[in-house]
Amino acid sequence: MGLILRGNNYGGILGASGVQGFFGEGYWYHRYLKPWGLNFEDMTFVAKTATYAAREGNMPLTPEYTPQERFPECIGLNPISGLVLNAVGLSNPGLEALLEEPTSRKWQQRTKPFMISVASLGSTPQARVDEMRKIAALIAEHRDSFRAPFGVQINLSCPNTEEDPRELVRESWDILTIMSEAGVPLMPKYSIDSAPIEAMLELQQHPACDAICVSNTLPFGWDGIDWKHVLGSDKSPLAHLGGGGLSGKVLLPLVCKWIARLREAGFTKPINGGGGILSAKDAERYRDAGASSVFLGSVAFLRPWRSKGIIAHANTLTWEEGVVGRAAR
């Protein structure tokens, strides 16, 4: 069945936030990769992350909210190693502009369940909560104009709380309470580097937490990765942009292990897992670790010819929720 949220089926596989852009339009290179097997049919759309106010970030956008540069400086690819480093910096035109997109209100016209992704970048916990209050009000205002069911993925991956479980719980709890006013399914998204198991066990008690998503990129320098071995240097090639975050195959065993540990500890709500899925077997590894569905991201440009097969296979798997005792292979 895949990911069931408030009675609606979001499927066995979702897109990583932004892999198809803000509205599902994709990117210029997608049309050249289609003959090589790039195909997002039967994958649940998840929009690129938006903040309340417009944010320039590190990726200049066109008036249509697509990247100006064909090969953005803020993204580094290593297809041979199956790795991506990015420092996009949440470039976006602001949530209001996206909800009121002038030509067709594209989110509102979608006919299948999908997800919007939002983030707050305030410099303090209170500022982030205040910004989320504005985001919740905007979504609630526009909610009834949507044709299809939709949920909100709340990006809480930034280690603003310095990995203190009590702070992570407190801030996430407050944000979930505020976002519940939007009246749609909520799926907070975390990175395994800043989401302790004990914090997740507490947060699953929040009635507005419908599911969680893991993992976002891992920040350059995180001590769980041998960076010199992985990238060939102790210095990030995107150091001038803050270092960036890593995606790709290195993440898979780390995230699967984290999910298995979370299930072992007693987490029972749905888990949308992803990171490093480059083959159909990789989706099975997430299923075996205890995920309720997976999301697909970097494979779209690292191994595009495999995307269609991975999506098809993920949608045939039996995804179980609340199963403890699974081992990450």
Commentary on this structure:
There is one protein chain. The chain has eleven helices and 13 strands. The model is unreliable at 159-163 and 322-329 (pLDDT under 50). With 329 residues, it is an alpha/beta fold. The protein has a single domain, classed as TIM Barrel. The chain has helices spanning 30-33, 95-99, 106-109, 125-142, 165-179, 197-203, 227-231, 251-265, 280-289, 299-302, 307-314; strands at 4-5, 8-9, 13-15, 75-78, 83-86, 114-119, 150-155, 186-190, 212-214, 218-219, 245-248, 271-274, 293-296. It starts with a strand and ends in a 15-residue tail after the last helix.
Describe the structure using short key phrases.
329 residues, alpha/beta, four-stranded antiparallel β-sheet, seven-stranded parallel β-sheet, disordered C terminus, 15% strand, TIM Barrel, 13 strands
Write the layout of secondary structure elements.
Elements: E1 4-5, E2 8-9, E3 13-15, H1 30-33, E4 75-78, E5 83-86, H2 95-99, H3 106-109, E6 114-119, H4 125-142, E7 150-155, H5 165-179, E8 186-190, H6 197-203, E9 212-214, E10 218-219, H7 227-231, E11 245-248, H8 251-265, E12 271-274, H9 280-289, E13 293-296, H10 299-302, H11 307-314
Parallel strand pairs: 3-13, 6-7, 7-8, 8-9, 9-12, 12-13
Antiparallel strand pairs: 1-2, 4-5, 5-11, 10-11
Helix pairs in contact: 4-5, 5-6, 6-8, 8-9, 9-11
Q: For the record, what is the CATH homologous superfamily label?
A: Aldolase class I
Secondary-structure element sequence? EEEHEEHHEHEHEHEEHEHEHEHH
Q: What structural class results from the helix and strand content?
A: alpha/beta
CATH class term: Alpha Beta
Weakly predicted, low-confidence segments: 159-163, 322-329
Instruction: Average the pLDDT over all residues and give the rounded result.
Output: 91
Largest sheet: 7 strands, parallel
Annotated CATH architecture: Alpha-Beta Barrel
